[in-house]
Amino acid sequence: MPDLPRDSVGLVTPQTAHFDDPLALACGRTLPAYDLVFETYGTLNAERSNAVLICHALSGHHHAAGYHSAEERKPGWWDAHIGPGKSIDTERFFVVSLNNLGGCHGSTGPVSVNPETGRQWGPDFPMMTVGDWVHSQARLADRLGIERFAAVIGGSLGGMQVLQWTLTYPERIANAVVIAATPKLSAQNIAFNEVARQAIRSDPEFFEGWYAQHGTAPRRGLKLARMVGHITYLSEDAMGSKFGRDLRSDDLNFGYDVEFQVESYLRYQGDTFSSSFDANTYLLMTKALDYFDPAAAHGGDLARALAPAACPFLVVSFTSDWRFPPSRSRELTNALIRAGKPISYVDIDSPHGHDAFLLPEPRYQAVFSAFMTRAARDLGLATGTEETA
Amino acid sequence: MRTDLKLIHRWVPQGAHILDLACGDGTLLAALARDKGVTGYGLEIDPDGITACIAKGVSVVEQNLDAGLANFEDDSYDLVVMTQALQALRRPDRMLDEMLRVADECIITFPNFAYWRHRVHLGIRGYMPVSKSLPHAWYDTPNIHLSTFNDFEHLCRDKGLTITDRAVGIRDHEGHWTSRLWPNLFGEIAIFRVGRQSG
């Protein structure tokens, strides 16, 4: 068995929590019962005061850190920041990472069986909102005996869940880390999501979402959706330095097959994604993004919407992110300032676009670690090593 | 704590809501929060300073002062503090206006260019002064608007502002009697407490 990296949480096994108490949703429907699949890293202390919740982004899931098997090629999606000695230090914190409702990695979603009909939910799965997710996450916390999270942390769509946590359950969150997020999508953001949805919905294999019944899947549409999405995750510079105008072969071939390396890369990303992700989940997640707008109920006044928030915030943006650019994080920051909340904002210099939130970068790590160390100190948390000493 | 920060610490009232422009590593805000229950935000652009603030639990916002304070509302703070940054701003005069828009009082400290050691550098030796308070060479200094104790007083007078308090410090100790007597000559660091126009 090959050795796992020393700063890894090591081998992890997903768990499933089943819930029988119906969950009322923002769309007006109710989910009668559901499963949430999740992973945990580190140890919950006796006071249950060191739990950290990780909220995932559009295509994320519960596997945020470590390895499912020694053969697994890549660790969880946020392994760069979760582990012993990392920003979210598992020697100090007990980390909970779940797959959101509507997902396709084990939690109840369109690919699950609807007990009322005995067949897959498919397109009939209720539309989810960020608020619904936060309610379900709070129930998972109840199940795990966590009254208050030491921190709730997320990037992109995950950051929106963090923001929602501070408004819905201010007494249950001690610190909020909102990374590469936005208080609401712009028209351009929604436009990109709509292109992705149309790509999926116009695929002849879509069958109004009932593709599973037809033994097929809208892979071409999902591939296109992912290709478009992927472009918005990278910066022009990152694409330029990675691929430039490099060709696959020495000469132009004057055809429509792959000629430029960037085409090859995008097709590969799209193919990999479309063979492992559910199209109905993708549609639903993009809608949850579009709907998020906590200021809407307060006449568009974000500062007023933020009034319930009661914990310190860390807001992080990345200079080359054009999906949720620094200006959106500043909008959130300024609203938090107007609302008089404790907030620190940093704009990390990175060439990696929106994806920068997933990657290790020295300044990002230094800021993130500093905030989490201060959070641990304020909560009186010892490190794992100190506890066993 | 730096001499000017010690003095400001004394001047800031209990429980004030303040802005600290160019707050550095957050030493002043952390001390004020601990000793006087002061709340507020620091603005800084130096990455190490920002990280140090966050480690201390000081609320810090990465923001370039040359972009102004448009994201802070009129009269939303009791006091705005700016230490050792005035001379690095593109338009110090406009910043003074901005500070007194956000609060009705501000405290500003800056290196006094007329300090006798600086005068020796320039007036006798013929070189741009390099000192502990002005450690850079002329070509790479961030200090693009050097001024003197007297200059600043003039600016305040021209704007009709009220100087409620002023002091000078020598880097390592609080003002010697000579600096109190002839601040423009013997003060290395000028410290002003300025309020809005009277009447």
Multimerization status: heterodimer
Task: Write out the strand line-up for the largest beta sheet of chain B, numbering strands in chain order.
Answer: 3-2-1-4-5-8-6-7
| Total strand segments of chain B | 8
State the helix count of chain A. 11
Provide a quick synopsis of the model.
The complex is a heterodimer of chains A (389) and B (199). Chain A has 389 residues and is α/β, with parallel strands linked by helices.
Q: What this model shows, in words?
A:
The complex is a heterodimer of chains A (389) and B (199). Chain A is of the alpha/beta class. Helices cover 33% and strands 14% of the residues of chain A. Chain A has 11 helices and 14 strands. In chain A, helix 1 (130-143) crosses helix 2, helix 3 packs antiparallel against helix 7 and helix 4 (219-233) crosses helix 6. The model of chain A is unreliable at 384-389 (pLDDT under 50). Chain B has 199 residues and is α/β, with parallel strands linked by helices. Chain B has helices at 3-11, 27-36, 47-56, 92-102, 116-125, 149-158, 177-181, 183-186, and strands at 17-21, 39-44, 60-62, 79-83, 105-111, 162-170, 173-174, 189-195. Chain A binds chain B through residues 312, 314, 330, 333-334, 337-338, 340, 342-347, 363, 366-367, 370-371, 373-374, 378, and chain B through 39, 41, 47, 50-63, 71-73, 76.
